[in-house]
Amino acid sequence: MSADQGQRRGWSARRTWIVLLLALTCAAVLLTALPEDDREGGDACQARTVSSWTADDEVTGAFARYGDDTARADDWTGGDGTHSVRLPDGRLLWLFSDTFLGQVHAPPNPVGQPHTWRDATAPMVRNSAVVMSRSGTLERTLPTPLFPDPAPQQWRWPVAAKVEPRSPGSSDKVVRVLLWTRATGTGPWIYGVPTATEVATLSLPDLRVEGIVKVSDQSAVRDLDQRVLYGTTAVDDGDWTYVFGGNDGKAVSRPASHAYVARVPKGRLAEPGAWRYWDGADWTESGKPRAVLGDGQRKGVGSAFTVVRVKGTYVLFTMAAGAEGLTTVTSYWSCSPTGPWHGPAKGFAPPLPKDGSAEQDTAAYNPQAHPALSENGRLLLSYDVNWLDAAPASAQANVSRNVSLYRPRFVSLRIATAQ
Known about the structure:
This protein is mostly beta strands. The protein has a single domain, classed as Tachylectin-2, Chain A (5 Propeller). 14% of the residues lie in helices and 35% in strands. The chain has four helices and 23 strands. The protein has a five-stranded antiparallel beta sheet with strand order 13-14-15-16-17, with no helix packed on it. Strand 9 and strand 10 form a beta hairpin. It is globular and about 60 Å long. The N and C termini lie far apart (61 Å). 43% of the residues are buried.
């Protein structure tokens, strides 16, 4: 081989390395720019929306039958705040906020009283839990309230729940339940003043409350409208659990709330020091959280909403803001829990129970996804129903007059790539 040939071969080899180096550099730039979901080898993030939906009479009917069963006087007859978590043995644990117990009565006069009803003395508790068998039968209500009041004039509402190791690396599993702590309020705070986010630990398989820890204390935030409660929904992604929340205190007077997000290393929800909150630029241990969705008008969330991951895309469901806020479910999508969130998409109005009153004044709220009961490419979504009245006593009287006005209902959604 001549010297000239050797020199040309050397330049060719160097060019090959230069091209390879440039390719690796470009790849590194692309990996930095792409959403995290795409870097981890999952399906690419795409715009997604609800392509169709149908009422799910099977699950709706299961709760109606369970609530109407008169075999016991200390079990669930209606509630809201519907959340669920699959247990390791296949059972499903359903968590509810304000709950009616007691018994219900068949209509004595189909003309004058056409609905199944409960009397005014029926006890109401601030939270409850109902166990569903592996086969899908609702079996029993756990002793209520499952989570005791933290102090007089305060109560706890359970929200999202996860099964986690008792401690990092442990084979012993427990259930972590996020709790919203509220205190009695007046004026626009008729549903309570938000005070803290807590995490309860339930033993398995007996579902006994072992302890409750406070992870986010909001009592020092003077502006009640700026207090954020976390746990309306929680989504696992890689090594993290992303916990969403909102400043929902003035839900009665505000057309749209803001959504916030925190993250916790997977399996450490009950460790307050492990929580980090999105401040608009980074995940911080303290400081002021920054909303990831909401402009106070057309864009925003209801007092409770839900988030799921569909392949590489985060999809958020909420009641629509503004005039449609208590009739229509809408959605947003994002490639990251911190946004940007795109939407709102065209919504749909889930069916409400029929009522014999002259003026139909019912409302749908709190859409929640139930992945454990979702199959065949469809997502099961619940929504709560209540009588729309600013006076709690009047609303309570109406939901007792017709028990179907205070029970969860379900729809099955098909989610597709947005066109």
